[in-house]
Amino acid sequence: MTKLHVSTTINGEPAEFLCEPGDTMLDALRGPLGLTGSKEGCASGDCGACSIMLDDRLVCSCLMLSAEAEGRDIRTIEGMAQGDKLHPLQQKFLEVAALQCGICTSGMLVASEALLQKNPRPSEEEVRFWLAGNLCRCTGYDKIVRAVLETAADMREAAQ
Amino acid sequence: MTDIQYLAPRTLDEAIGAFAAAGSAARILAGGTDLLVQMRAGVVRPGLIVDIKKIAEMTAIEETAEGGFRVGAAVPGAVLAEHPRFGKVWPGVLEAINLIGSIQVQGRASAGGNLCNGSPAGDSVPALVAAGAIVTLQGPNGRRQMPVEEVPAGPGRTHLAPGEILVDFTLPPRPPGSGDAYLRMIPRTEMDIAVVGVGVSVTLTDGVCTAARVGLGAVAPTVLLVEDAAKALIGSKLDDAALNAAAAACSAACRPIDDKRGTIVYRTKVAGVLLKRTVAIAAKRAQGN
């Protein structure tokens, strides 16, 4: 079987990879691209651990073929920190211990960043609704929700 | 492993040519939120995947001169939600489409995929049936149109001919005093498969219902258009007698299965209850228009 050659943009940098036509974007990220921050939880779009941004829209990379990345703009958890400087959401997750085992964390962060870009002042209900596609079996969600709300407040203050 | 071919054509003719030539082993890829899960589970092993999202009309949303809408089959729910007018004119259709899955799923999942997946419990389908939406199909023998309710043939099956692709949905213009709504019953609060889903569209003139359509999901092998329920509503002021008659018509139309989500008795009862609640929301919206 001939592999497909895909040219795309990942975290602002041009990237190329080879894939099988039936590979998912998650397969490509964790395989040839070596970006293992996105996790495979359920592989059926239920858990959100593989969340990425595709042309500024939040999607599950397990529900996307890697061939679809051709010419698109993809952002993953690896692009969230600026060098050594963590994104405020990442910093807050650490400070308030909004994680335990960590499998869901990169998906939670990518999804939370997408929320705050769309809505800098979310209510608790809006945070919980937005993150309903990100499952966490450790924390009980409270710390995660609090971390997102606190980060939103911090970012609003910093923007003033 | 089975060889898979992936194509992302830019024209509909190219897509149909490849799709028809590949026969039953081919699958259309819109958002992929059903197809990739089925591939992963080994239920589907496509020889050819035709990605239709590079075809302009598949992803377009257009308000027609008469005030209706054409919605491309592959438009994701999140994109439809951002349209400045669609949700104002068809709030019930939009809420039904937006009930499918998480934010992540909404970034990809389309009404076209929901319909062609053929699930009796697809959330967008009863609302589109109630809206009187017409689908455009194109295949090797040209274009044709079909009411949404005629598309499903049974669980996982449609009346699309071999090689035919669902191109778009046409929603009619709305007369003044119209409103629509969709409600579903699920065991959880969010993100679950409907036990019953009801879509209602009504038009009211001086408080009297002059037009109504009712779509009913998850209670039969296909989503149903319940004409007897609509007849019970039309000509009434949506009073208790009319609502009870329409609810009874919905319950009578049910041919459900027993499963872990709901029993036959439960689904049949809830179909009537949901009908009343959905009519109430649609009527309130109609009064505001």
Name the descriptors:
heterodimer; A: 160 residues; alpha+beta; Ubiquitin-like (UB roll); DNA polymerase, domain 1; 2 domains; five-stranded mixed sheet; 5 helices; 5 strands; B: 289 residues; Uridine Diphospho-n-acetylenolpyruvylglucosamine Reductase, domain 3; Enolase-like, domain 1; five-stranded antiparallel sheet; four-stranded antiparallel sheet; 11 helices; 14 strands; 25% strand; globular
Helix share of residues of chain B? 25-40%
Highest-level CATH class of the largest domain in chain B = Alpha Beta
Largest sheet of chain B: 5 strands, antiparallel
What is the terminal-to-terminal distance of chain B?
Answer: 56 Å
* CATH overall fold name of the largest domain in chain A: Ubiquitin-like (UB roll)
Q: What CATH architecture of the largest domain in chain A do you see?
A: Roll
Number of helices of chain A: 5
How many domains, in number, for the residues of chain A? Answer: 2
Describe the secondary structure blueprint for this structure.
The complex is a heterodimer of chains A (160) and B (289).
Chain A lengths: L3 E7 L2 E7 L5 H6 L20 E4 L2 E4 L12 E3 L12 H8 L9 H14 L5 H7 L11 H18 L1
Parallel strand pairs in A: 1-5
Antiparallel strand pairs in A: 1-2, 3-4, 3-5
Helix pairs in contact in A: 2-5
Chain B lengths: L4 E3 L4 H11 L3 E4 L5 H6 L7 E4 L9 E3 L5 E4 L4 H5 L4 H4 L1 H8 L4 H4 L4 H6 L7 H8 L2 E6 L2 E6 L4 E3 L2 E2 L6 E7 L6 E8 L10 E10 L2 E10 L6 E2 L1 H7 L6 H14 L10 H24 L2
Parallel strand pairs in B: 1-3, 2-3
Antiparallel strand pairs in B: 4-5, 5-10, 6-7, 6-10, 8-9, 11-12, 12-13, 13-14
